[in-house]
Write a structure and sequence with these properties.
Helix content is 63%, strand content 0%. It is mainly α. Helix 1 packs antiparallel against helix 3. The protein has one domain. The chain is built from three helices and no strands. This is DinB-like domain-containing protein.
Length: 67
């Protein structure tokens, strides 16, 4: 397995971990915000998953500067 493949696998495992962690919460709990100026749990998890998926959109990203 190449370094890129290992990194992609690790990202996929991270996404699966985030999904497992939020399974116990109801949709209402995931959307609940303590105030308008903070993110909900759902927003935070969505951001983390999207951030982890970014390199998957461009596997060559690992080799580019500033990616």
């Amino acid at each position: 397995m190449t370094a890129t493949e290992k990194a992609m696998h690790s990202l996929q495992e991270t996404i699966a971990f985030y999904i497992r962690e939020v399974e116990p919460f109801s949709l209402g709990e995931l959307h609940k915000k303590s105030s308008e100026d903070v993110w909900s749990i759902g927003q935070m998890i969505q951001h983390l998953i999207q951030s982890a998926q970014m390199p998957m959109l461009d596997p060559q990203c690992f080799q580019k500067t500033g990616c």
